[in-house]
Amino acid sequence: MQDRLRRQDRKEKNLKVYPAAVGDPAYLVNFFLFLYQYWSAGYVNLVYFSRGYFGFAFDLFGIFSVISRKILGLKVIQFLFFIVLLVLLTPLLGSYMSFVFQKQNFGYFEKGIYRLCSIQPEKEMTAIEYGKSLFFFNGLGFLTLFFLLLFQHLLPLNPQHFPGVQPDLAFNTAMSFVTNTNWQAYSGETTLSYLSQALGLTVQNFLSASTGMGAMLALIRGITRKTTDTVGNFWVDLVRAVVYIFLPLSILLSLILVYEGSVQTFSPYVEVITLENQKQKIPLGPVASQIAIKQLGTNGGGFFGANSAHPFENPSGLTDFFETLAILLVPAALTYTFGKMIKNIKHGWALFIVMFSLWGIGLGIAFVSEGYHNPLFDVLPVLEGKETRIGNSGSLLWTVSTTATANGSNNSMISSLSPLAGGVAMFNIMLGEIIFGGVGVGLCSMIMFILLTIFLSGLMVGRTPEYLGKKIEKEEMRWVMIAILMPSSLILIGAGISSVLPVALSSLGNQGPHGLSEILYAFSSSAGNNGSAFAGLSANTLYFNLFLGFIMMICRVSIIVPSLAIAHLLGKKKITPASSGTFSTNTPLFLMLLFSVILIVGALTFFPALSLGPIVEHFLMIEGRLF
Fold first, then answer.
1. Is 149 domain-assigned?
2. 3-state class of 464 per DSSP?
3. Angle at 591 between CA 587 and CA 597, to 5 degrees
4. 3-state helix, strand, coil in the chain (%, to 5)
5. What are the phi and psi torsion angles at 525 (to 5°)?
6. Residue 560's closest CA among 529, 583, 586?
7. For 371-430, what is each residue's pLDDT tens digit?
8. For residue 261, is it left (φ>0), alpha (ψ between -120 and 50) or beta?
9. How far apart (Å, rounded) are the C-alpha atoms in residues 155 and 148?
10. Could you tell me if residue 608 is inside a domain?
11. How far is CA 95 from CA 48, 92, 100, 316, 336, in A?
């Protein structure tokens, strides 16, 4: 009887619903955005208090979690929910982006920007003019950010009075954010002023992502247009990407982050007394606004050194879910945008399936690897290097997603993952930004592999290769090979040189195969414009700041220039009508060929290096040896 009364008492407390005014904005926010509150905890949560207001949210996923414990398991339900939401949002956002970039009229705010900047939006550019505008704009952004970091001690919004950033680190950071890499050899809360973070890094997060999207749009126009040498207007593409896509999405995600506890302020750091009666400074800053665009623009650079493992960047299970979704959302939706713009939606879904399959396989391998018993720890799951509030599954989902997309943010220590899980993250980057990839340039990289697959298929059957009605000839293939081979070459050359130079080896935090993985991952992350790190490598040295900075620049150029060159070559060609002998790019056969070419190229290029790093470390781990 007493047990039944206690259960009834708990039930009455849990089911108590507080009234809220229908016009209360907090009510609507609760109802529409926070159905998924405390998803990682996996319990029924029927009551939610809005801060400063009364409101309620019916946590459907809490019910699903209770059911999942007895049927499929909590993790399975969580991943299914994530995947279903990603698939549903892909055509919605993809259609919207297609409309934005193909509309002929210009909005009032858009016109105001063009008038202020003396831009002629109706004027089309050739691929060369488009490239000149793109690289001029990026060069100007690099110089602005470089000098902003150098002289931040002389500028306002520096309440902690941080000194100017040392020149080699300023070079590396500026190049990193302009190229959408966001490699960070520093901790933001101890190095950068609020002005550097907000005006410098956050602005480049918007602009570098929009630049990548511009390169993609030029390539798509080159494929779809015929007998023309124009590929659009870079300034129009840039403005529309920022104003209509990244800015609205970032505002929405920022509001969610602030609501959940992320900070957004220009107040100085706060000093508090801890439970141990010791003084501690709590870093603050305009965090939420930077975190939102860092995820949506596949940038990844965090406000704090701990990145998205920091509670001010990623306060709850809800924010962890939305931030992980934001990492994949825009790159995934661009496959549908591509299908709409080429008037072949099936082909867009075909690319999504290939990308999703590579992502899913990597995620599966990572989960299996984390389940291997480590005799030195003798515990499962191993949570060293992971946030307990996020857990093992949330950490692996984030890690595989962030390396599949050139995002590079992290909510756990990648170096602490099992060897094969860390190897999956590394291999995702090595493939060259094709598993969804960075915003815009990821799709460009996938198109390079599509052209390679079609060219090889044409050679096997003795037909001139064609893609969407355009003949693929030797000029296009030269640029394809540059785009595919340049990053791969720089990864292996840079890692090989650094593996023998004392100035590089002195930065290692570990020896043996794990030490090699640290070096290999650093160069893979820089060449793939990813920005994540194994973190055992002390990269804030003159050697790594300059070497990795130049690799970021070269590899960014090596995908954008070939994309514009191929757009120029294909745009001048006629579109050949499909015939009975045309090799369809929507069939399962083509998907299998494309999938195989991607894996073969990746395996042949990187298997020897991976064998000496994460693969051999995995077998040594099973024997009880760590490095």
1. yes
2. coil
3. 145
4. 65, 5, 35
5. -65, -40
6. 529
7. 887 777 777 778 888 888 888 888 999 999 999 998 999 999 998 888 999 999 999 999
8. left
9. 8
10. no
11. 34, 5, 9, 31, 7
Return the structure tokens found at 466.
Answer: 């064609």
- Residue ranges in the chain modelled with pLDDT below 50: 1-72
Q: Is residue 470 part of a domain?
A: no
CA distance 439 to 559: 13
191/226 same-domain check: yes
b/e 35-44 (16+ beta carbons within 10 angstroms → b): bbbbbbbbeb
Task: Indicate whether 250 and 302 sit together in one domain.
Answer: yes
Distance of CA 369 to CAs 362, 372, 404, 425, 559, Å?
10, 5, 18, 12, 33
- Is residue 40 located within the same domain as residue 183? no
Does residue 467 sit in helix, strand or coil?
A: strand
Amino acid at 328: L
Same domain, 127 and 252: yes
63 and 90, same structural domain? no
599 contact partners, CB below 8 Å, separation of at least 6: none
Assess whether 316 and 190 both reside in one domain. Answer: yes
| Count of all residues that appear for the chain in the document | 627
Alpha carbon distance 276, 259 (integer Å): 30
Name the β-bridge partners of 467: 470
Residue 365 lies in a domain: no
- Give the integer Cα–Cα distance in Å for 234 and 220: 13
Report the C-alpha gap between 196 and 191 in whole angstroms. 10
* pLDDT for res 108: 85
Q: Take residue 261 and report the two structure tokens written for it.
A: 């506890």
Q: Which of 71, 102, 128 is the last residue of a domain?
A: 71
Question: Is the CB of residue 356 less than 8 Å from the CB of residue 447?
Answer: no
If one counts the domains in the chain, the total is 2
Residues 146-205: tens digit of each pLDDT = 999 999 999 999 999 999 999 999 999 999 999 999 999 999 999 999 999 999 999 999
Structural domain harbouring 43: 2-71
pLDDT of residue 270: 93
Q: Which residue, 18, 43, 71, sits at the end of a domain?
A: 71
| Cα angle 515-516-521, degrees, rounded to a multiple of 5 | 100
**One domain, residues 163 and 265:** yes
